[in-house]
């Protein structure tokens, strides 16, 4: 990890593991799903720096992250987690797909046998 001047947005999203590939990160940016400091970004080459705030529309949820560092290369998930801190508004909980394994509530759960919603 380095505290450098900045890094391309697509590369940072890939290093921080918000996208599986740089192409997926570029697609996320091109669709307008990423904001940097409240400004919609459509260019993958936009530089992000420590201190920037990213708003990411991922799936059915929105994640707000503070960039803490940039990385020279993609590393483990543990190292990627050191690149940002997540902001969760007071009184809110992260969407189910972002909660740690085993902590999701059972509302809207589906039957394992049929895939139909449980009542």
Automatic annotation (TrEMBL):
Disordered: annotated segments: 91-119
The entry's keywords: RNA-binding
Listed InterPro entries: S4_RNA-bd (IPR002942), S4_RNA-bd_sf (IPR036986)
The protein's name: RNA-binding S4 domain-containing protein
Domain RNA-binding S4: 7-69
Pfam families according to UniProt: S4
Any one GO molecular function term: RNA binding
Domain of life the protein comes from: Bacteria
Keyword RNA-binding: yes
Basic and acidic residues bias (residue ranges): 98-108
Source species: Propylenella binzhouense
SMART domains found in the cross-reference section: S4 (SM00363)
Keyword RNA-binding recorded: yes
